[in-house]
Amino acid sequence: MFDFLEGYDLLGAFWVTVQLTVYSAIGSLIWGTLLAAMRVSPVPLMRGFGTAYVNVVRNIPLTVIIIFTSLGLYQTLSITLGAKDVTDINFRLAVLGLIAYTAAFVCEAVRSGINTVPVGQAEAARAIGLSFSQVLGLIVLPQAFRSVVGPLANVLIALTKNTTVAAAIGVAEAAYLMKEMIENEAELLLISAVFAFGFVCLTLPTGLILGWVSKKVAVKR
């Protein structure tokens, strides 16, 4: 029944999808947190940059961003991010594009968590002489992250599905292999079902586990 899978590295393709997700998730969390810090910063220039970045990037289709990383950064500006092989270059550029796009949504999730922290706590921290960065890092962000595990889980699930766009620049992840198999095989419905099941196996446990974590670490007010 599944003879059409012979000769194709299905597990390898999904492993590339997992790698794209993990690297992009780490980068998005770091960059998105920095953007959130900018959006609540007392410095007008930083607030303006954070606001402009989020409003612009999240309204650009991800496909446009991914293709720009290939055509704009690599082919036009010859930026390779330290890679020499074309496969590695495309992979790193795809991660960069996913980070740039997903960080805008991470930023908004983290900022919503920051807004749940009582203002009095930040004021008390400033009253004892803590700087803005100390207040944010020691008082606000630890509580904010605890309240946004659920929203961040949704962003992570969306990121996992968005990795399929990397196929547009030749990254050999699951969607790229699916396209190749559909072109070469006649089992369209079975191929679609196999890849749909694969993504369910990646995203469903993520949602369930992080949903459980969200309930465990939620801030009681």
From TrEMBL:
Domain of life, per UniProt, equals Bacteria
Q: Where are the transmembrane segments?
A: 12-38, 59-77, 89-107, 127-145, 151-176, 188-213
GO BP term, pick one: amino acid transport
One Pfam family named in its UniProt record: BPD_transp_1
PROSITE patterns cross-referenced by the UniProt entry: ABC_TM1
Q: Where is the ABC transmembrane type-1 domain?
A: 14-210
Give the membrane topology: Multi-pass membrane protein
Q: What is its main location?
A: membrane
Q: Which GO terms describe its cellular component?
A: ATP-binding cassette (ABC) transporter complex
Q: Which InterPro entries match?
A: AA_ABC_transptr_permease_3TM, ArtM/GltK/GlnP/TcyL/YhdX-like, MetI-like, MetI-like_sf
Q: Write out the GO MF terms.
A: transmembrane transporter activity
What keywords sit in the KW lines?
A: Amino-acid transport, Cell membrane, Membrane, Transmembrane, Transmembrane helix, Transport
Enumerate the subcellular locations listed in this protein's record, separating them with semicolons. Answer: Cell membrane
| Family statement drawn from the similarity comment of this UniProt entry | Belongs to the binding-protein-dependent transport system permease family. HisMQ subfamily.
Instruction: Tell me the protein's name.
Output: Glutamate ABC transporter permease
